[in-house]
What does this fold into?
Amino acid sequence: MEQHITLEADAWRTVLAEAAAPVDGSVVVRGPAAAQVGAAWHLLGYGPDGIATHEAPVTAGDEGVSGAALVALLHAWSTPADLEVAARTAARWLRPRGVLLLAELHIDRLLGASVHSYPSALLYRMFPTTGSYVEARCASATDLVAAAIRTSLDDKVVLEFDRPLAVDDNRSQRPATAPLVSWRGIEQLDPEEQASLRAALAQVTPPTDPFVETEPWYAVAGRTRP
It folds into this structure.
């Protein structure tokens, strides 16, 4: 886990710098793997006054840490239609000129990617209906920008980056198969379908050894007004 936290920190380092994320004050992280992201950001020196994490989506009426310096929503909505409400709610937790970061899996890029670059693309290639299922639940970059605009954020930036899913640290000749549980939409497959996916994955040769599996993400960040 420590290695994964370090890799997560490396993935976010440039994103946080380009978003001009404040290194003082408290931080709120919401969405899947929030605790892992919070630990990585703590490693980078963010959130000296505390990092509050929760995996649940943000809904209207949710209460957060008042006066936070940075709030990050990482796919912290049930559907794209819920994104704007989540953004507006989270913005109320920020201090003036605090940073709100909205981030999402870059599903369009993943659907068209090589399985050698992103092994999880194999899931959507073998089972297109699962790809459609996930795509319908992911906000697009345009959705994120629109939410940032409607939340009246200033100094907006749009960023793309890769987040780590798993590390095949036993130097095998194939990508790690354990992270299938982290692939979005995998729960739509029955045991037989998952077995066929694992068999196909075992034939994919990783480009590096040890292999670090990542997935593409994008983010929009901006500051609340004084």
